[in-house]
Specification:
This protein has one helix and nine strands; from the N terminus they run E-E-E-E-E-E-H-E-E-E. It is mainly β.
Length: 113
């Protein structure tokens, strides 16, 4: 039989679940997903931007934007994973929603140095 241990800890508001779970002696933790709206967006003509995304009225607005200027030496997937690219901060970007080819969600500080 598999044993599962849920660990709780006291807090000011009572008892709270811990962020890990142990199954058969192996400790597991939740995957930390982005809590915000930051993404890398590839748009027509090959432009690539990253920023905090707001979509409304058929427009895409990127705040805290960066332009992904060069990344080809390591490939797109590795650039997303490592942020190892020529990233240039720029002013907020506003574009028509139809310009978007695809979008990859990233962590909240992606590209910010």
């Amino acid at each position: 039989m598999t044993s599962i241990y849920l660990i709780t800890q006291p807090t000011e508001k009572g008892t709270q679940m811990n962020t890990t779970i142990t199954i058969n002696g192996i400790e597991y933790a939740p995957v930390n997903r982005s809590s915000g709206t930051r993404a890398v967006i590839v748009v027509d003509r090959g432009w690539i931007f990253a920023g905090d995304v707001t979509r409304e009225n058929g427009r895409i607005r990127l705040s805290r934007a960066v332009h992904v200027f060069r990344w080809e030496s390591i490939g797109f997937a590795k650039m997303i994973e490592t942020e190892d690219a020529d990233l240039r901060p720029i002013v907020d970007v506003d574009m028509p929603a139809d310009a978007e080819i695809f979008c990859v969600p990233v962590h909240d500080e992606w590209g910010i140095k």
